[in-house]
Amino acid sequence: METPLLLFTVAAATSAYLLWFYLLSRRLTGPKVWPLVGSLPLLFINRRRIHDWMAANLRATGGAATYQTCTICIPFLARKQGFYTVTCHPRNIEHILRTRFDNYPKGPDYQAAFHDLLGQGIFNSDGETWLIQRKTAALEFTTRTLRQAMARWVNRTIKNRLWLILEKAATENTSVDLQDLLLRLTFDNICGLTFGKDPETLSPDLPENPFAKAFDSATEATLQRLLYPGFLWRLQKFLSIGAELRLENSLNIVENYMTEALNARKEAPSDDLLSRFMKRRDTDGNNFPDAVLKRIALNFVLAGRDTSSVALSWFFYSVMNDKHVEEKIIAEITTVLKETRGEDPRAWVDDPLVFDEADRLVYLKAALAETLRLYPSVPEDFKYVVSDDVLPDGTHVPAGSTVTYSIYSVGRMKSIWGEDCMEFKPERWLSEDGDRFETPKDGYKFVAFNAGPRTCLGKDLAYLQMKSVASAVLLRYRLAPVPGHRVEQKMSLTLFMNNGLRVYLHPRVL
Ligand code: HEM
């Protein structure tokens, strides 16, 4: 091509692109966007405070609490792969999670990324495949025997291992990373509950467990897939290199462990979820094949492992910094225990709470809910848009794009929770006489456990577990922060603390 013609073509194409970009950016309501890379530079700059950044963007919209942005400003891609609608508007969330549930599945990218680890399990499926498992699982999660099983696994771990570790640290006046201990504890519990085998990762010498390590690394490699364009991880997988090689190796370890667990349950069924699913039949009246059973179990492990430990870490952090709330929690537990175990304080700390004692702790439940409002274990969640739609606040969402609902931001908006939304106030969850725990009338202003047909199945079990652990720690010890230790959020799909939660433990005099 002649040089003038070439220059003219380039100039014409650039002008057409800039005009297209101008029209696109005029319709976007979120942070500033640049040609080609859209809002990616700001996303990168704010990567260490991504949740607060998103909340600030949402506040900046005024009352709307919804914005739209683009990370790939290239024609044809900009309205699909690179297009994000971010919202924390309760009516929009209700629309996505309940009213037009079928239009907002997890979607093909999410499913493809998680497929190797979770198969078509409940956490990673949509439509009929999801519905069948949901119905079967929902039946099990309402049984009293499952709650008893959870209470048994939790209390055993507290009594035989957690208390030993904490007592040693208190006696020797050394600090512990409470987050690490809690992660180990809930991993052990969920494995016990799911397939009847406690890997005892919470033990005095804090051992490295091959299954836990492989499961962690498989989850991490899977999450990495979501960060990059799909063809990149598919190429890595084809070549068996990098994160994909690590994933392959970890999955082999996980697979072998699950095969052993399944065989053990076949020989000696128990009250765990795997044994329960082994007895059930699929829609054709057949037993679930072994491969499916293993995936089902892994889905429960993923769903119930880090969520409660992360919530507990933020709970202890919040309570440690609020003496008034701490005193009220202790007062409530001791009042209940006086009635159930008598006046001698030694009897209160001899054994962890039984189910009926835990059930009576409404202020503690309120403090846990308040923690989840400010620090939801899953801070942001995503859905795929099947066909063009309009959200209740008038926002148009194009088919093929992603809607993010920011659970973190919902709890931090004055328009939703009032002027004192940033304060830690368990009282807001109590009835007027203070005797009952009350969920908000608008169920979509608290979505830490999700809402609609895909509401968390483990919510009641999680509260039971968290109450037991919270009382077991607080009744015996006062927690004190380690000077200089910085508590900050880790930027991942679960709201971990970046450097853990290092605390000293001082025996509590009751
Ligand atoms: C504080 C603790 C917990 C929190 C904050 C929590 C939160 C959530 C959230 C936000 C979801 C929706 C995830 C999504 O679809 O993207 C979910 C789903 C789920 N959770 Fe939980 N969870 C907790 C504990 C548990 C426990 C202990 C279990 C199991 C024993 C569990 C079992 C499940 C299951 C099976 C689902 C999938 C439901 C479905 O897709 O139909 N969760 N949870």
UniProtKB/TrEMBL annotation:
What GO molecular functions are on record for this protein?
A: heme binding; iron ion binding; monooxygenase activity; oxidoreductase activity, acting on paired donors, with incorporation or reduction of molecular oxygen
Q: Which Gene3D superfamilies match?
A: Cytochrome P450 (1.10.630.10)
Query: Where the protein is mainly located, per its record?
Result: membrane
- Where is the protein found, in the record's own terms? Membrane
The way it spans or sits in the membrane comes to: Single-pass membrane protein
Q: Name one GO cellular component term.
A: membrane
Instruction: Report residues binding heme.
Output: 456
- One Pfam family in the UniProt entry: p450
What keyword terms does UniProt attach to this protein?
Heme, Iron, Membrane, Metal-binding, Monooxygenase, Oxidoreductase, Transmembrane, Transmembrane helix
| GO BP annotations listed | lipid metabolic process
Cofactor(s) named in the record: heme
Q: Which residues cross the membrane?
A: 6-24
Task: Say which family it is in.
Answer: Belongs to the cytochrome P450 family.
Q: Which PANTHER family match?
A: CYTOCHROME P450
| Name of protein | Cytochrome P450
**Upper lineage:** Eukaryota, Viridiplantae, Streptophyta, Embryophyta, Tracheophyta
